[in-house]
Design goal:
There is one protein chain. This protein is α/β, with parallel strands linked by helices. It folds into two domains: about 130 residues, 3-Layer(aba) Sandwich (Rossmann fold), CATH 3.40.50.2300; about 170 residues, Orthogonal Bundle (Hypothetical protein af1432). The structure holds fe (ii) ion (FE2).
Length: about 350
């Protein structure tokens, strides 16, 4: 696109000289006799550069400079004046003028300044276009990465679902247990202001907490009636079996604390490590509540349904013993058991 130049001077002669010379150089020019007239041309036309006198009636060059820069900061402006004062020059440059030339000005000097100003404008535009292109490219790549991440997440979720099916299938009386533990654990964590990222880790950890049960014999898991001490010992192995199953897979690594510690007791009386209080990872302390609640409320062949009220008061009694008291409060007061 050809560069259009706006020449502003209250001396008609100067306008004409500049008009002719710049026309010879191949520029398309328009002239104005003061700032106000120049501004109305500027609103209508697409100018790359303005050469303006400073002292003019109606609107002076400095005021014009400020107005033009406010409309389009990229436009280049060369100031020309017969009254050279250092303060004026400094002020003009500070307001964004490209050059400051003193009259009577050598025409070659003005042409050189015009060429330099337009070249500088072109470079700035190229840099801007390059930046925009880069931003666009980053945007496209980010969208692709997000898509890949969503796909990866879905594949993980699908594989976790298969594992959860396998866990739940080991014990037909607790079908849906992992999913209920997940839902209630997330509801507790939300009340504890977990970040999205932490909620996601908890979601998978809660779904997989009993994955070690895959390694426990069916006759023990499905036994009707109380377990003897040997059988109970086997059951107590499931958190560590779970860790062994998942520890080689990167995606599962941050879920291990939940798999390993969901049977620890707040007073240190749980297994497998006998951790107590806040030494038990928070996620494991959270999961242990819905896990126990769901086990207590599930119907077993040798045991009927337990009234909700009894289960809740039993949990209340286990505050500070089996469970973290703060989490029991959230569970009961927030009616988490209803989610
Ligand atoms: Fe368990």
């Amino acid at each position: 696109m050809e560069d259009r130049i706006l020449i502003v001077d209250d001396e008609e002669v100067i306008c004409n000289i500049l008009f002719k010379r710049l026309g010879k150089e191949g520029y398309s020019c328009i002239t104005a006799n003061n700032g106000k007239e120049a501004l109305s041309h500027f609103y209508q036309g697409n100018f790359s550069l303005i050469i303006s006198d400073i002292n003019m009636p109606e609107m002076n060059g400095i005021e014009l400079l400020q107005k033009v820069k406010a409309i389009d900061p990229k436009v280049k402006m060369i100031m020309v004046t017969a009254y050279p004062e250092i303060d004026l020059a400094v002020n003009a440059m500070r307001l964004g003028a490209y050059d400051f030339i003193i009259k009577p000005a050598d025409l070659d000097l003005i042409v050189m300044s015009v060429k330099k100003a337009l070249e500088s404008k072109r470079l700035e535009e190229e840099i801007e276009a390059y930046h925009n292109r880069l931003e666009e490219m980053v945007g496209e790549r980010t969208a692709k990465l997000q898509q890949a991440y969503r796909y990866l997440k879905k594949s993980h979720l699908d594989s976790v679902k298969v594992l959860v099916e396998a866990i739940d299938a080991k014990d037909p009386y607790t079908r849906g247990h992992s999913d209920r533990v997940k839902r209630m654990s997330l509801a507790i964590a939300k009340q504890m202001d977990f970040s999205e990222e932490r909620l996601e880790i908890l979601e998978y950890g809660a779904l997989l907490h009993d994955i070690g049960k895959i390694g426990i014999k069916d006759e023990i898991l499905q036994k009707q009636g109380p377990l003897n001490s040997t059988e109970y010992q086997f059951i107590r192995e499931h958190p560590l079996i779970g860790v062994k199953i998942v520890e080689g897979v990167e995606f599962f690594k941050n879920k291990i604390p939940m798999i390993r510690h969901h049977h620890e007791y707040y007073d240190g009386g749980g297994y497998p490590d006998g951790l107590a209080g806040e030494d038990i990872p928070l996620e494991a302390r959270i999961i242990s509540l819905p896990d126990a609640f769901d086990a207590m409320t599930s119907v077993r062949p040798h045991r009927g349904e337990k009234p909700l009220h009894d289960v809740l008061s039993e949990m209340e009694k286990c505050k500070g013993k089996q469970f973290d008291p703060k989490i029991v409060d959230i569970f009961i007061q927030g009616k988490i058991y209803k989610v």
